């Protein structure tokens, strides 16, 4: 998967014990790895390191979350849960 993942982007895990779980990208690391958070089990203080090959990127990026990351402001687990809830509820509300 050569797609670039950006901080604040919604992704879904495609491999591992957390298959099917939604995360927000917190940061990129080396060797095609990213740190992801969900604000509940994978908190900002202990993000999960995932290989990008094991993630399916979703088209949505939470602008407010991404801006906080970019500006260096503190991100809380509540911010993460709120962003995920907004993005997932908006995704399910879209007509097909």
From TrEMBL:
Q: Does the keyword Ribosomal protein belong to this entry?
A: yes
Keyword Methyltransferase found: no
What are the alphabetically sorted keywords of the record?
A: Ribonucleoprotein, Ribosomal protein
Query: What would be one Gene Ontology cellular-component term for the protein?
Result: ribonucleoprotein complex
- What InterPro entries has UniProt attached to this entry? Rib_uL2_dom2, Ribosomal_eL14_KOW, Translation_prot_SH3-like_sf
- This one is known as RNA-binding protein
Name the source organism.
Desulfocucumis palustris
Q: Species lineage, top-down? A: Bacteria, Bacillati, Bacillota, Clostridia, Eubacteriales
């Amino acid at each position: 998967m050569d797609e670039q993942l950006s901080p604040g982007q919604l992704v879904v895990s495609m491999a591992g014990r957390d298959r099917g779980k939604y995360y927000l990208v917190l940061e990129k690391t080396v060797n095609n790895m990213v740190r992801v958070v969900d604000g509940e089990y994978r908190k900002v203080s202990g993000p999960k390191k995932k290989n990008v090959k094991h993630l399916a990127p979703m088209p949505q990026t939470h602008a407010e979350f991404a801006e906080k990351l970019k500006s260096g402001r503190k991100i809380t687990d509540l911010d993460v849960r709120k962003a995920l809830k907004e993005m997932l509820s908006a995704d399910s509300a879209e007509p097909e």
